[in-house]
Write a structure and sequence with these properties.
By secondary structure, the protein is mostly helical. The protein is 68% helix and 0% strand. The radius of gyration is 26 Å and the shape is flat.
Length: 300
Amino acid sequence: MAKPDTLTIEPSGPLPRPMFAPGRVMIYAVLILTSLYYLIPLYVMIITSVKDLDAIRYGNIFIPTANPTFAPWVKAWSEACTGLKCSGLAPGFYNSVSITVPSVIVSIAVASVSGYSLANWPFKFGEFFFTVLLVGSFVPYQVMLYPLVIITREMGIYSTLWAVVFVHTVFGLPILTLLFRNYFSSLPPELFKAARVDGAGYWRIFFQVMMPMSVPIFTVAVILQVTGIWNDFLFGVIYAGPTNYPMTVQLNNIVNSLQGVKEYNVDMAATILTGIVPLAIYFFSGKYFVRGIAAGAVKG
């Protein structure tokens, strides 16, 4: 009895690409050069911050010191002069935290509810309201500086941390509302309709249906707000008052001080301490940032 012919299975799918294909080599070369462009300054800052002044005077900014010291970090945190006081960046850190935390919470809470309402609960003049927010996102900050000085003065909060919180919350609402509105519009409408059929109301749908599916866009909002507020200099120097300056203002005072010996190691340590919070947030939540931006800024 003849054996049946065995079936021949032809290979399918794309052909394997060679490891050193010209396109792949070019992509990796561009990525490596871009990474070096951003990492080399950080590397110089780190190794300079652990050198003493004698090692810095020798030059060779790319060569680490054989005897690293963390005294510049200690001085930048607790001893450097930031004006009339020589208490380092520590007071500015607590001021920055006191400004950032309530600003982020209030702006995201208001913007998420506003975006949810615009996307799922049409109301009279809703499009006009959304247009005003969009226009507001393109108004330069400098145009509103003096009017906001008058407003915060009349509110009785000028030269306080609450003035800076108020200003950051107001300026964060337009872009955040746009992101949340577009993200909620991109979610399947059948979920909203099913919840309505089951008798869920406005807040129950928001907290039990929308929020659990919105982790990426909330992460994007947190990153944008924390980065923008923590790194802000203009609002802090205008609205906070001399006793409530955030870290960025105190860093400027340390770096631009003209008294005594120029301590580049302390300047570098102070700069790294000021930027470590947004860097850490980007490092731990970068994948959510890319995912949320793609969903919240393109769709809708």
